[in-house]
Inverse folding.
């Protein structure tokens, strides 16, 4: 019926980011299920103290782009010819971002 995942790295330069993957079967689209799942993922991301969520969507998937936009994501970039469809044709990918919480200020003062 549907699946949503939140992937993150606990360490390294992407520790504050979460990657969202979402799939809703065609028979269950346009009933708000995707919106509900995106909201749940965003709530989990907030509890995990992530700062941003990232979704990568092929530019031809207008319904997914609309769902993420409605959930507060914005278009950050379009990467041309990044993926291929089933007929081996190149597709652009839209990178979408949602701010979950303000970035932490972890500046340090050094006394040398």
């Amino acid at each position: 019926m549907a699946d949503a995942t939140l992937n993150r790295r606990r360490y390294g330069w992407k520790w504050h980011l979460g990657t969202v993957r979402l799939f809703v079967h065609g028979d269950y689209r346009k009933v708000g299920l995707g919106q509900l799942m995106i909201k749940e993922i965003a709530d989990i991301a907030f509890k995990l103290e992530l700062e941003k969520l990232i979704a990568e969507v092929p530019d031809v998937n207008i319904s997914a782009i609309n769902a993420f936009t409605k959930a507060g994501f914005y278009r950050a970039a379009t990467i041309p010819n990044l993926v291929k469809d089933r007929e081996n044709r190149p597709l652009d990918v839209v990178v979408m971002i949602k701010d979950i919480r303000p970035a932490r200020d972890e500046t340090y003062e050094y006394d040398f």
Summary: The mean pLDDT is 92. The CA atoms of residues 2 and 109 lie 48 Å apart.
